[in-house]
Amino acid sequence: MSEPKSQPVLFEERRAANGARIGVARLNAEKSLNALSLEMIDLLAGRLAAWAEDPGVTLVVLEGAGEKAFSAGADLHKVHETMLAHHASAQRDDIRGNAYAAGFFGREYRLDYAIHTYPKPVLAWGHGIVMGGGVGLVSGASHRVVTHESRVAMPEITIGLYPDVGGSWLLGRMPGATGLFLALTGARLQASDALFVKLADYCIDHARKSAVFDALLAQPWGRAPGGNHHLLTAVVRGFAQADLPHGPLRQHFDLINKLCGGGELHEIVAAIIGLKTEDTWLARAAATLAAGSPSTAALSYELQRRARHLSLADVFRVEFVAALHCARRPDFAEGIRALLIDKDQRPRWQPPTLAQVTPEWTEGFFASPWKAHEHPLADLGT
Known about the structure:
By secondary structure, this protein is α/β, with parallel strands linked by helices. The protein has helices spanning 38-53, 77-87, 99-116, 133-139, 167-171, 178-185, 191-196, 209-217, 225-239, 248-251, 253-260, 265-273, 280-291, 294-307, 312-328, 330-341, 359-363; strands at 9-15, 21-27, 57-64, 69-71, 122-126, 129-131, 143-146, 151-153, 202-203. A six-stranded mixed β-sheet has the order 1-2-3-5-7-9, with helices on both faces. Helix 1 packs parallel to helix 3 and helix 3 (99-116) packs parallel to helix 4.
């Protein structure tokens, strides 16, 4: 069973040798590098919910169309349009005034949480570009595959947002100070580094993808999710490559811990930007931070601090409020303008420097207009 090829998400059910069905969801917006629209989020959420209840579906596979990307993140053009309208409206001081942003982030985070807590095995094939919202989809899967062509990143500092989709939770659990470094610099990870920071579980040659699917169809899938989980693990382990060479993040692990492991945020930022290096990866990371939104740097730092002892559901609730404040404030719209609309690569951040980002400004990102039981994501984790 498959869907018309014009749909932004294609769904297919492949029947295994013993009659069990494997659900395949393919992001189908190749020209935009499978950027996530609200329609795609809703389609995925609906079908995943149906497959979760269908006893004949034993596992789910998430993949992206084309050879370039699983997903480069969210489709931000509509978000930008609604932010400008909100900024010009009488409701500009109320984060609830942008209904589209609330709907987009709320439904995206619900989908990500559903994948994290899915009752059946989920195999995410994270080939090519996996960034932002793409990380949100992949990170919750029970079996996360990257390939040699994968490039994984949370580059939201370049657009005045922050590493959301549970990023505050994910980054804070990475080895050493790597999570803070990645949030501040948006640095790209290759396969071995994605494995090192636990954003992926296996590296498999993309050319063997068909063979992996053939092996999946040959398994004696049952009705018990635990047994199916072990079967899927055995299959992907059989194709996974071991002993990958260290990537740049692993190579510079000690230096990153030295740069980010202590001191106040302004000291950490100054140390990264002031780094004297001929290493291309480190130099690009420092340059991205130097050009990025100071508010994003402060917010990302504070989010990781607060998320350290929160449940994943609570992190999504905190991130939802912060995302709507980002949509209300100037940097998010300005970052999208500079990167995607006018493409002048010259964002005018407000405040323009980290020294001008006050504690009160940062604290404002966490001010919620809802009581706990009224929060739009109050039911997550219940």
